[in-house]
Amino acid sequence: MSADTQTLDEAAVRGYLSQNLEGFEGPMEVTKFQTGQSNPTFMLKTPAHNYVLRRKPPGILLKSAHAVDREFRVQKALEGSDVPVSKMHLLCEDDSVIGSMFYIMDHVPGRNFNEPAMEGVSPEDRGGIIDEMGRVLAALHEVDIKAVGLADYGPDGNYFERQVGRWSKQYRASETQTIPAMDELMIGLDEQRPEDDGQRTLVHGDYRLDNMIFDATGTQCRAILDWELSTIGHPFADLAGVIMQWQLPAGTEGRGMGGLDRTALGLPTDQAFIEAYCKRRNLAGIDNFGYYLGFCFFRMAGIIQGVLKRGLDGNASNPERALKLGEFVPVFAQHGLNALKRG
After folding, report:
1. pLDDT above 50: residue 224
2. Top-tier CATH class for 10-106
3. Is the pTM for the entire model greater than 0.90?
4. Three-state secondary structure call for residue 102
5. According to DSSP H, which parts of the chain are helical?
6. Around Cβ 257, how many Cβ atoms within 10 Å?
7. pLDDT in tens, 49-82
């Protein structure tokens, strides 16, 4: 049984897959992906097929966090839809196998871009990749949740009320210092919440360029990754999450578009991306977008605070990066407060 996030009990995994995964045959080579901060993820290479194992971290975790069973369920449900996902093989809920729940999916080959500058990609392909990102997002929000068996994947009621309450509790549970902007932002999100417009769709919860795999030579999306925060909710949270990311500084830390010459690089403006999304979903436009943007900055601040706490407690997937990311909590909180005030 593996006791930490960096290693995997290969013998236990190999034995389990030999008995439960049709077509599995060793030898098996295991490599840990260093990207991502939540659920430790491993490549499993075999002579005939490459798989990915994604597990819950061992140890004491926040309630409802690291729900790999939900990740498995939503991707399984989307198989064959207009939303590209990896093929799901099996979910192991028996903690005794490797120390925590895990699932097995196909490894999807292709290109993954850490930031929208996409070094080495032509302006035409950059624009095509971002347009594909918008197409897939609109397709995700048009999924018939009843038809794919996900009508019960999230509770009824106002999504933003529920999410602000949830992440406020998560933030308080992992709080390590007082951040006035975060306190003010949480109050403002409660007080300025828009009326519920009735939209209830599948949402990814962390829809970003670096959570997508694209064709090795083209612009088509092959798979969306990291569904841990997915639920039934309001689609504008996903859309605002994209714009939130783009407002951050360019480079490997911010992974945004701040300071980039978007026109020269073939990248769209925020407004052009929003308008294309609305056109695909036959929406007239979006009022009070600043609220949704402020919410996304708030939620990301809460997520990063949780990563920081795990880093300090010694059970983060990448402890050194966890501590570095923690420095951005006050920055995200201030950005969120600014967006909320702009309306």
Report:
1. yes
2. alpha beta
3. no
4. strand
5. 10-20, 68-77, 123-141, 159-174, 180-191, 235-246, 262-265, 270-280, 289-313, 319-325, 329-342
6. 24
7. 999 999 988 654 445 556 899 999 999 999 999 9
CATH architecture of the domain with range 123-342 = Alpha-Beta Complex (3.90)
HSE-CB at 252 with a 13 A cutoff on CA atoms is: 4
**Lowest mean pLDDT, pick from 33-42, 65-74, 80-89:** 33-42
Four-CA torsion 42, 47, 48, 51, nearest 10 degrees: 0
Give the CA radius of gyration of the chain: 20
Nearest to 207 by CA among 227, 232, 181: 227
Domain ranges of the chain: 10-106, 123-342
String of b and e for 36-68 (b: at least 16 CB within 10 Å)?
bbbbbbbebebeeeebbbbbbbbeeeeeebbbb
Per-residue pLDDT, averaged over 29-44, amounts to: 83
Q: What distance in Å separates the CA atoms of residue 260 and residue 258, rounded to the nearest whole number?
A: 6
pLDDT, tens digit, 9 for 90 and up, residues 163-173: 999 999 999 99
